[in-house]
Amino acid sequence: MKEPIKRRSFLEKSALAGLGTALSFPVFSAQPQKVPGGNESLRIHIFSKHLQFLNYREMADAAAEIGFDGVDLAVRPKGHVLPEKVGEDLPLAVAALKQAGFQPEMMTTAVRRADEVYTKKVLETAAKLGIKYYRLGYYKYPDDQSIPETISKIRKQLKELSHLNKSLEIKGAYQNHAGLRVGANIWEIWEMLKDVDNGYLGCQYDIRHATVEGGRSWQTGLKLIRPKINTLVLKDFRWEKANGKWELLNTPIGEGMVDFTAYFKLLKKYQLNVPVSMHCEYDLGGAEHGRQKISVSPKTVFQAMKKDLNRVRELWSNA
Question: Key word Isomerase present in the record (predicted)?
């Protein structure tokens, strides 16, 4: 991690100075807002993957200045905090969050089994620092196993991991992710988790990926998995045809195919107000991929994040 710089210097160099006025949002407002109708707003954390061009203090200051309610720390290989350095660096990252007015709540990891090399160290350190939720890494389907066999094996691993989570008082979540990974379909995750009933391992529900895989039937999957949901992910996409082939294009929130109005209405109906991680996976000069050097100005990234954050809060309030 590069050496921290003074906050005033950071604000000047990153073009954050005066950005609050320009974008009309409160400076260092790290508490959930109230919205019309008496509903508490979603607790929206920015995924730190998109701020890996900043050190911990800069990241935390930027997230607070933009108006997020927290940061979902990337604690994984090529992340903001490396698993092999978690004992040294995670306390520094959490201290930076607290200095900016946040309480640590979420992180994203590569953890998949209780007996992996860094699992216990990562989870123990996080739990001691007050982090309450973490996202697991992904599983793949081996060529030499049937799908039911693989899911049965994963279910056993998740059960063991849930016991470790319970002993540490930290909750894990497996994200539904479109593509060839295990769990692209919500029914797979339901099968994986159906015997894990101690409340310490659940699902991180991603509406973007659910829409990609479920089309117009994502509501069925949401209804099925809702008792297991403990965190959410927000992002958007659309299909585009390029060179005769249909391809996924990630978009800012509200500019794609995700029906956020219908989704937010269901979340309110189900009283699902859990911590949220917001992802910005459209073109942001490399910030979308977690690069440490980006080809656009920090101001461009911050403005895009603020636009998405405002849109989410508007859609939630109107749903």
Answer: yes
Q: What is the value of pTM for the model shown?
A: 0.89
Cα–Cα distances (Å) from 163 to 40, 41, 109, 120, 150, in that order, read: 32, 32, 18, 12, 20
Q: Tokens at residue 94, please?
A: 């959490």
Q: What is the largest CA-CA distance in the chain?
A: 58
Nearest of 199, 206, 209 to residue 179 by alpha carbon? 209
Q: Evaluate whether residue 249 is within a structural domain.
A: yes
Task: Give residue 17's pLDDT band: very low, low, confident or very high (50, 70, 90).
Answer: low
Please give the residue range of the domain that contains residue 276.
Answer: 34-318
15 located within any domain: no
* pLDDT single digits (tens) 265-275: 999 999 998 99
Distance from C-alpha of 57 to C-alpha of 63, rounded to nearest angstrom? 10
Count up the domains in the chain and report the number: 1
User: Which residue pairs, CB below 8 angstroms and at least 24 apart, start in 208-212?
Assistant: 208/178, 208/233, 208/234, 208/235, 208/236, 208/237, 208/256, 208/258, 208/279, 209/175, 209/176, 209/177, 209/178, 209/184, 209/233, 210/176, 210/186, 211/237, 211/257, 211/258, 211/259, 212/178, 212/237, 212/248
Q: What is the CATH number of the domain that holds 197?
A: 3.20.20.150
Strands 229-234 and 236-242: unpaired
In this structure, is residue 241 part of a structural domain?
Answer: yes
Domain assignment of residue 24, yes or no: no
